[in-house]
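Researcher: I'm preparing a figure for a lab meeting and need a structural model of a single chain. I don't have an experimental structure, so a prediction will have to do for now. The sequence is pasted below. Please return the structure as tokens so I can convert it later.
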Amino acid sequence: MTGYAAQLTEYIRQGVIPPYNYSYPSRSTYRPLDGSWTVEEAWKRDLTLYQVPELNLYLHVPFCRYKCGFCNLYTVISEDTDVYTAYMNALCTQLRDHADIIRARRLRTVYLGGGTPSLLSLRHFEQLFSTLDEVYPNWRSTVEEVAIEATPDSIVNEPATLEGLLQLGLTRANIGIQSLVPKEIREAGRGQAGEQVIRRAIEIAHDKGLPDLSTDLIMGFAGQTDETWRHSVDELARLDPATISTYFLTVRPDAWFSKTGAYQYAQSPNLYERYDYARQVFTDHGYVQEGSVRYKKLGRGGYKQKVLTFHGVPLLGLGVGARSYTGVLDYMVGSVKPSMSEVADYIAEAEAHVLRPVTGFVLDDEEIIRKRLVLDTFDLDLAELDRFGYQDKAHLFEPILDAAEETGLLRRLGRRAQLTPEGFKYRDILSWMFFSDTVVQLDRDYYERLHEQNKRARKHMGTPVGISGIRTARAAS
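Model: Understood. Here is the structure written out token by token.
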């Protein structure tokens, strides 16, 4: 058995659970950019990489009614409709300012993320879609998915908003559930989204004819047992959403659970048994596995923006805290730390047309290859990477792919690599092995710094230090 194969085998034996890799490099690796980078220059250089340029559009709405304990996303607590209106005006201004970038590509998906975008009123969405009509008039002909994130209570409280969004072109809504066990829902900091509210939200989505209702469950909450996990899985399968995701709980140092130090969560090999149970139940109910965390009803479910981004289609992120992924630079504009004052700064800078990349990660050919290997081994034609010098750099990657094949995680079909069912299960262990030393060090530095800040804060408050942090395959080695 080769060295990499032995590593993979040992990580699997230990039950190592790295964080889910939905981007590479992660936000933790972003550092301040020098003044030479502009949005226009990044996207101009990106165009040179693609024969058939395509684009995913992500629009960020940071507002929430409450903060989930495990969330480390760019969110702020606000229900101020005047702030919502000012923010939407700024977002539409930023969208117009990117018209040339959008028009130079074929628009494939539109995603309204957050935060809780469904807190906005229907007039805000009408303004946004009217601006998109102005920027890219035929978007409804090219776009395969129009999606929004929502909470169960926002759907129950404002069902007319969902109905209006469907008329505007909505095809998918992600309704965060996390659990169907009341105690676990409260543990997650989601007391307003009780089990009955969740069931009612799903019922409304079905009744309104939403094409793709996307839901999720989380493995590893404090107090969760195999029995309560099975209950949530069984009940959700019976509720029949088009898409279901199952995540291992990750408590990052910038989430509330970690900052308090009071939350201890399970992270052990038996969580993979919960993964196995969910996979069996969902496949028995007619779902197919789209990725390591996601199941869909064939032909009507799934998460197209994520799949396309993993395949290398660039993503333009607009709104405060949004990230953009180009072929040469991953970046954020404006604020990087969520607060209402930073939201106000974003609004002012967007209206003044002065937003520019402030933090990010510059990609060279090797990092582009690594990005595809980290994200896209579900089904990856390695020949697509030859234009980035894969053949010359193969010695960096082929031994890991060979080890994955040797351990049964991956199959080779000519130059196409595809994960096996076992590969789907342990995908994140394999993905971390493709991280560059640079990315690993930047990630480690960022989170070690946050850990130290949390320790000092808890010591000052007199709060005992709990278990938190990130466990990665590399950290376990």
